[in-house]
Amino acid sequence: MRELIMPRPSPRQWELFRAKEKYVIFGGARGGGKSWAVRWKAVLMSLKYPGLRIMIMRRSYPELLENHIKPLRSLLNGIAAYNGTEHEFRFGNGSTIKFMYCEKDGDLQRIQGHEYDVIAIDEATQMTEYQIRTIMACLRGTNSFPKRMYMTCNPGGPGHQYIKRLKERRFREPEKPEEYVFIQSLVTDNRALMREQPDYIEQLKAQPPRQREAWLYGNWDVYEGQFFEEFRDDPEHYLDKKYTHVIEPFEPPAGWKIYRSFDWGYAKPFSCAWWAVDYDGVFYRILELYGCRKDHGEPLPNEGVKWTDEKVFAEIAKTEREHPWLKGKKIQGVADPSIWAGAENGVSQYDVAARHRVFFEKGNNDRIPGWMQCHYRLAFDENGYPMMYVFKTCRAFIRTIPLLCFDENRPEDLDTKQEDHAADEWRYFCMTDPIKPRMHHEAAPPLNDPLNQWARKKH
Prior knowledge:
The protein is an alpha/beta fold. The chain is built from 14 helices and 17 strands. The protein has helices at 11-18, 34-48, 61-75, 129-136, 160-167, 191-196, 200-205, 209-217, 309-322, 349-355, 367-378, 395-400, 421-430, 453-458, and strands spanning 23-28, 53-58, 80-83, 88-91, 96-101, 118-121, 148-153, 180-185, 246-247, 257-263, 271-277, 283-290, 292-295, 298-304, 331-335, 361-362, 388-391. An 8-stranded mixed β-sheet has the order 3-4-5-2-6-7-1-8, with helices on both faces. The chain has a 7-stranded mixed β-sheet with strand order 9-17-12-11-10-15-16. Strands 13-14 form a two-stranded antiparallel ribbon. The protein is elongated and about 80 Å long. Residues 445-459 have low confidence and may be disordered.
């Protein structure tokens, strides 16, 4: 058997090779040599441990072919035999590297009953939490091999929120903190790229600020494909309300009008929000009722509480009767037009709402114009003030809006497979009072920054 010579890894790639934790997350910046690392880790383990069963998973087969199968066929020529029918490398010592893909939940049926000692999910954030957890269930076996799972990832995608939670070590039962480690990758970890294309870093630095933060520094608060990339949550400006959309709560003045927006959900969350509008037409999201299941206080992404129509609208009515900001107020409502349809026994969801004295007008469901109104509201003027704010207590909005991404097939639209319920009712409300676009202004760096505080805050 010919000898394999591995190129020298970066220090962070060495961390992945040496990690002893059960779940190793290697991610961050664009071009960080993550696929290279998991390929070599799989090969080295296969050669060292006879009979090892490894699976490498990506979202699609073409991605597997280009990023793993072709490079490994060249690398392992004369060392391991490739079975094109089974999509599997077989080593002389009985170890195997299997390749699988998961574009949709139905693809998971192909791994039911499978057992693997090592699993690598490449670009894990491109899969949902459900898909990742289902794949995790295959990490088992009766042999004595220590079970390992490697997840490479960039910020963004359906699994962003799940991986970000693990990165921030916000664990839920039955997750064990000692079993997880996150290793930050940077473009400089890709030694081959730095050797062949040394100006790549300059290309990343030339990107717009938000994109540069994600691609160059691996910032998990901004990322490629983010639909509302202008949304800002800056606690330093909660009081002065400049260059932030999230602010400190306050009781709306008596003369401000109050509105309600609603998007129905059962298996998926429902979303109800209350808005105050000042004399200049600025929107303030002051309260919300969001029907999302929780586990130990943490929301389960896109899982509804499965309340009946009666319970949902009874709870909305109770909130409006009892909350001091809403009690006794005339509240105008706008809702998803679907609540007027799909009546059972001649009674629609709107009829149920009306019985509880919760009234709505039909929302304008034109998606692209609606999203543009949301963008117009988020834009800052030359003094740093937008046309809408969100109280910091509206946690569902603050959690879900930054995670939403563009639809791959409709570039101007939002991907509806995401947790978009707060966004939908926000869109209905924005369409009740359309505004014209104005120039978007980013916060400008200070002219005098002797302590380099601005740069340190940004990076």
